[in-house]
Amino acid sequence: MKKIFEQEFNAAVSRRSLLQGSAGLIGGLMLPNGLIMPAFADDKPAIGTWPAGSSGSSVSIGVAVPRTGTYAVQGEDELKGWELAAEHLNSGHELVKKLSPKTKKGVLGKEVKLVVADSGAKPNQAVQAEQRFITENKVVLMTGSTSSAVAVALNKLAQREHVLYVAGISGSNDTTGKDCVRYGFRQCFYGEMAANAIGPVIVKAYGKNKKAAYLTPDYTYGHTTTASVENYLKSQGWTTVTNQVSPLGAPDYSSYLLNVVNSGADVLINVNWGHDCVLSTQQAKQFGVLDKMKLVVPYQVPFLARETGGLMEDVYAATDYWWTLEDKYPLAKMFNESFEKKYGYKPEWGAENAYIAVVHWARMVEEAGSFYPPDVIKVWEKGETIPSLVGDVHYRPEDHQCVRPVIIVKGKAKKDMKNKDDWYDIVEIVPGESVIQKPDAFGCKLGDYT
C-alpha cells in the first residue's frame, strides 16, 4: 500500500514542485511517531504553484509586458489595465461586481498582487521572467504579451508548468489555433476575426477586384493575419500584388515602400504593429504611397492615430474596443470613467483587454471556489455567457477563445474631433459568432489538465 501511494504521489507532482517542497513550498501534515505526510488541499495533489501560491492571505499574478522596444507604448497601456483590475478586485469595485458577482474583496478573499517584468516583446525574456515569478513568487496566474510570439511561448510555459495564462494582446491565429493549450485563454480578437469583420467593410468602400499591397511583420501574428485578410479579399476578386515582409523593430521601411509604391496597388494593408506600424505609416506618407492608394489597418494599434500625427483620417481599422462604446454599453462607461480618473486619458484597447481578461479569470476562480487550476479551467470550459465591456461573451471550450464582437472604426478628421482622444468613429460592431472560424479549423489540441 505504501509503495502504491508513493508511486501515485510521484506521478502527480512535477519535478519542479518536488524541488520546491524542500524549500517548504509543499506543506506537510504531522502523523504519529513524527512521520510526515505530503499535504493535500481539498484532497487534490499539488500541481504547478497550487496550493502553495494561494495558501496565504494574497495571491500573485505574473505580468511580462514590453516596457521597452517597438511595442513599449502599447505595453504600458496594457499594464495600466492590469493595475486597475487588481485595484478593483481588491476594493470590491462596483464594476467588478457586475462582471464577477461572487467577488467581494480580492479573489476568494485574497488580495491580488502584481509582479511585473519588462519582456521587451521577446519570447525568451518573457519566459525567463515568468519562470522566475513561478519559482520565487508562486504566481497563480501569468499574463502579458503584446507580441504573439510571446503569447505562444507563454502558452507552452503555462502547459508545462501547470500555471494558468491569460494572453494580453495577441493577434495571431495560432494562439488559440495550433499553439493552443489547456492552461491558456485569450479574450481579445485576432487575425481571422479581424479579416472577416473588416473585409466586407473595405470591399463595400473600395469595391471588388482591387489590387492590394501588404506590409507584414515577420512572425506568427503578421503571417497569420496577412493570410486571413488575403483569403477573405481573394473571395471578393482582390489580388495581392506585393507582400513586403520586414523584421520586428525595423528602423527603415524605405526599401519595402519603394516596392509598394511601384506595385500598382489600390490599397495598402499595413499589418505592422506598435512603433513599427507608426514608422511605416509615416514613411508611407513621406514616400507618397498614401497619395496613390488607400490605407487599411486590419489590426488597430493603440495610439496609432496620435503617434502618426493624425494619419489615420478616413482609414478603416478593426479593433477590440473603442471608448465611445460607452454610448451603447453601461459597463464600458463605468470602465472609461474609472480609467480616465486614474490615468488622465480615455482607455485604449490594450488596457481594456488586460482588465477584462484578469477579471474574467477572477470570475472563474470564484465560480470554482478554488485556485486549483483544473477546476478553474473546467469552469471556463462550461462556455457560459458572461458580461464584458462589449456586451455578453463566452469562451469556447474547444480552443479557449473568447467569442466577442469586433469593432470597426474609421479615423476622424482633426476638425471633427470633440476632444484629444476622439480619433475614430465606430462604423460597425460585428458579432463574434459571424466572423470566428470553427474551433478545429486552425489545429487546436488543448492537451491535458494534469
- The class by helix and strand makeup works out as alpha/beta
Give the biggest sheet.
7 strands, mixed
The CATH topology of the largest domain is given as Rossmann fold
If classified by CATH, what would the architecture of the largest domain be? 3-Layer(aba) Sandwich
Mean pLDDT: 92
Question: Could you tell me the strand content as a percent range?
Answer: 15-25%
> What is the CATH class name of the largest domain?
Alpha Beta
Shape: globular
Please give the number of β-strands: 17
Question: Which bin fits the share of residues in helices?
Answer: 25-40%
> How many discrete domains?
3
Radius of gyration: 23 Å
Order of the strands making up the biggest sheet: 9-8-10-11-12-16-17
- The first-to-last residue Cα distance is 23 Å
Low-pLDDT windows of residues: 1-40
The total count of helices amounts to: 15
CATH superfamily of the largest domain: Response regulator
List the helices and strands and how they pair.
Blueprint: H1 2-12, H2 15-21, E1 28-30, E2 36-38, E3 58-65, H3 72-91, H4 94-99, E4 111-118, H5 123-137, E5 141-144, H6 148-161, E6 164-167, E7 184-185, H7 191-206, E8 211-217, H8 220-234, E9 239-246, H9 254-261, E10 267-270, H10 274-286, H11 289-292, E11 294-297, H12 304-307, E12 316-319, H13 330-343, H14 349-368, H15 373-380, E13 386-388, E14 391-395, E15 402-403, E16 406-411, E17 424-430
Parallel strand pairs: 3-4, 3-5, 5-6, 6-7, 8-9, 8-10, 10-11, 11-12
Antiparallel strand pairs: 1-2, 12-16, 13-14, 14-15, 16-17
